[in-house]
Amino acid sequence: MKTSEAANKILGLSKYYTVNKDNHDLSVYYKGNLIIWVSEESEYTFTLSRFRPRENKKFSFRKLPDFNKLYMIITEYALTKIEDHKDDPKKYHVKVPHTEEDYYWKVEDGVLRATRNFSMYQDEKLFTMDEIKAYGLEECERVEAE
Hints:
Number of helices: 3
Helix content: 10-25%
Shape: elongated
Structural class: alpha+beta
C-alpha cells in the first residue's frame, strides 16, 4: 500500500483523524493526539501510543471512530514492503517552447527531439521532475500525464 493511499483512507474515516508523514514514520492523530504510527525503519511493525484522554480514564481504542477499519488500514500498510510505500513520481509531457503542438521526446544518450506523435514510444515522451531539471526544462510548459 502506498503512503498516499493509506493516508487518504484514514482521513476518510473521520474528520478527527489527521495523518503526518515524515522520513521515518507515518503517524495518525486523533483530535491532535498521536494514537498510532508505522516506522519506516522496521518492516511489519506499528505502534499504538499510550494516548489516554484526561476526561476518560477508561479509554479504549475501540471507541475511536471506525477504529477497526483504521487498524486494518495500518496493518495492511505495515505489511507492505517499505520500498513499496513510496508513490510513483508524477510524470509530465514537456512542451517545446514557441511551438503549437510539439513536445519533447527522449531519444538516446541525453538527446531530445520534438514530436507531435503520442501513439508510439510513450515512456520516452514522459519526464519526471528530476529529468526535467536534468535536461534544464524547468521553464517549459508541462502537462501531467494520466
